[in-house]
Specification:
This protein is mainly α. The protein is built from eight helices and no strands.
């Protein structure tokens, strides 16, 4: 894909120079402009197809690992700020970074929210765009 992008960028320079060198309405550079555009389109189409079939198709997410990343991210504290306050959220975030513990555990330990509320607020549907 890098080689394709280098070639397409070169073709873009060709198109720009060809357009700049055109004489009034009689642009003698139209053939090279058209050739560079068509070549770029073919290269990009082919490159995207190869990338899809050899690198993207068949990729699956490890849901357990992804959920762990979400729940162990200190950024989830922002969803709690309306309920525990910004200052408490800042303190919880700092402690989570310092200790490596989850925001959920620290909020429950400090008694800032009850378990049901924390679990409802930190549910994956609230933390992702899958609503």
């Amino acid at each position: 894909m890098n080689q394709i992008t280098f070639k397409v960028r070169g073709n873009d320079v060709t198109v720009g120079l060809g357009a700049e060198a055109g004489q009034l309405q009689l642009n003698a550079m139209e053939p090279v402009i058209a050739q560079a555009c068509v070549e770029s389109l073919r290269l990009l189409t082919s490159g995207c197809e190869v990338l899809r079939t050899r690198c993207v198709d068949g990729i699956t997410a490890n849901q357990d690992v992804c959920e762990r990343y979400v729940h162990n991210s200190i950024s989830v504290v922002t969803i709690l700020n309306d309920y525990i306050g910004h200052r408490a959220g800042d303190e919880v975030g700092r402690e989570a970074v310092k200790t490596g513990r989850s925001v959920r555990d620290i909020v429950l330990e400090r008694g800032l929210l009850d378990e049901e509320t924390v679990d409802r607020l930190l549910a994956l549907d609230n933390l992702t765009c899958s609503r």
